[in-house]
Amino acid sequence: MNNEINSFSSLLVEIFSSSFSSLLGKSFQFQVESVSEGELNDIALEYMGQTLINIKESLNGIDGGILIDTLTITGFADLMLMGSGEGVQELNDDLKDAIKELINQTISAMNIPFNDEFKKKVAFGVISVDTLLDTSSYVGNILIFDISGSFDGKNVKFKIFFSSKLKNLIMVESAEDDDFDFSPEVTAVNPMPKQQKTTYGGKNIDLLLDVEVPVSIRIGSTKMFLKDIVSLSPGNIVELDEYAEEPVVVMVNNKPIAKGEVVIVDGYFGVRIKEIISKEERIKKLRDK
């Protein structure tokens, strides 16, 4: 079970770091300090009168939430609203909406990577943003993730919790017991193997490997009447034929070579490759006119 908890913890802070950095225009780095199992009452006293963000995973019925100091989260909301990031001690409707949008975009960004990691479909989202006044609506054990982080030289901390159903969802069959012994794993990165000479059709193409080629990402397409195109104006929405969860297509020289999912890396958009054609097919597509 420890491996699954480690994997989920890594996914959690990766998503929060990248999403906050992109949405708030600052460089955020979060880490999981500890993981424990208990009840909401065990951690509520520290955050009584502060902000509770209610989370719901709708496909598997997992409840959860984020407990965070109101001054901190309203500062994030102010950044979301293009302000200076100055927080306040009380929530208002505008701040609640901004907080809900920030966390909803962040927590829903976990859905596809979660499925990739644990082979389970999930649909995380935010239900509401409230001031924590009591814990009567939460009964039973929860998994508690203590999160710390920093941005612009400022330190922040908060707690994310999920009902114990999450433990069953991420668990895979193993001989390990269910006791928590959380310790972040360090993954060694193997050096790239020495590049071999590449040939195609008996010809050495090494001399071409340093040539830059245009790479674009296709998220979808549609057809429109010319009259509708002429009448387009700011604020109009062009609906594409593809569903939101469908993979994007990586195009090289206007030829598809791979499919993947959109991710955010250090505040920039990127694509995590899910499927890709063989090297031989890639070379052939680049040569074909």
TrEMBL record:
Top-level taxon in the UniProt lineage: Bacteria
Keywords: Cell membrane, Cell projection, Chemotaxis, Cilium, Flagellar rotation, Flagellum, Membrane
InterPro entries per UniProt: CheC-like_sf (IPR028976), FliN (IPR012826), FliN-like_C (IPR001543), FliN/MopA/SpaO (IPR051469), FliN_T3SS_HrcQb (IPR001172), SpoA-like_sf (IPR036429)
Record bears the keyword Lyase: no
GO BP terms in the entry: bacterial-type flagellum-dependent cell motility; chemotaxis
Principal location: membrane
Ranges for domain Flagellar motor switch protein FliN-like C-terminal: 207-277
Molecular functions (GO terms): cytoskeletal motor activity
Membrane topology: Peripheral membrane protein
Location(s) in or outside the cell: Cell membrane
GO cellular component terms, A-Z: bacterial-type flagellum basal body; plasma membrane
Primary role: FliM is one of three proteins (FliG, FliN, FliM) that forms the rotor-mounted switch complex (C ring), located at the base of the basal body. This complex interacts with the CheY and CheZ chemotaxis proteins, in addition to contacting components of the motor that determine the direction of flagellar rotation.
Family label: Belongs to the FliN/MopA/SpaO family.
Protein name as catalogued: Flagellar motor switch protein FliN
